Amino acid sequence: MASSSRRSGPNRTVKPVDPYGALVLAGGSARRLGGVHKPGLLVGGVRLLDRVLAAVPDAAPRVVVGPPQPTPPDVRMVREEPPGGGPVAALSAGLTALGDAAQQPISRLALLAGDLPFLSPAVITALRRGADGRDGAVLVDPDGRDQYLAGVYRLEALADAVASVGPPTGVPLRRVVTRLDLARIAAPDRPDGAPPWLDCDDADDVRAAEAFARRASGQ
Q1: Closest by Cα among 99, 106, 25 to 59
Q2: How far is 58 from 43, CA to CA, in rounded Å?
Q3: How far apart are CA 28 and CA 22, in angstroms?
């Protein structure tokens, strides 16, 4: 249920954002990291998956798609079919689980990769506001690349796009999301300069993430 509008400053009205759910894709083969389970890697002493979930503390429901792994009590864990069937298969399984787990109707969904250590609630709020009146909003990195797994989507539009591609196994995510009307959002600045779109795909990315984490902690 949306809250009433709040005023920020003398002449500015901040529009409330609707309730939303969160879906984290936390599988994948991580070939460039030797096949390790990426969401379980530690950055600054905290698991990547825990960092991502901390960016959406007010989402309900919260669903993680991937192999069995520790999650907070409120998080539902599911597996795509077949295991390793790719991001759209994981998305499809997650959408089904969201429908089963939702305690109240939601119109928006944060769709996130499980290896983004520097997402924050502020970034998610910027995406939720940016998605207003559109099918969704995604982060854009400084090179202009859309980060489809750092986005907030209109749930109905995303589900329709998934259904329209047929069997989801092996389908690239781009084939789904390019059917949508998306806003492209530059991330709010962080005091430590850590980029919210940084994903830990390889060893260099993990080292860069550790360096940002050390800077944030003052080490």
Answers
A1: 106
A2: 23
A3: 18
Which parts of the chain have pLDDT scores under 70?
1-16, 28-35, 102-103, 217-219
Distance of CA 158 to CAs 73, 142, 165, Å?
Answer: 27, 25, 11
Domain ranges of the chain: 15-217
pTM value > 0.85: yes
Backbone angles phi, psi at 55, to 5 degrees: -80, -15
**CB neighbours (10 Å) of residue 19?**
16
**Dihedrals φ, ψ of 9, to 5°?**
85, 175
> Residue 184 burial (CB < 10 Å; 0-12/13-18/19+)?
middle
Q: What is the CATH number of domain 15-217?
A: 3.90.550.10
* 139 vs 60: CA distance, rounded Å: 21
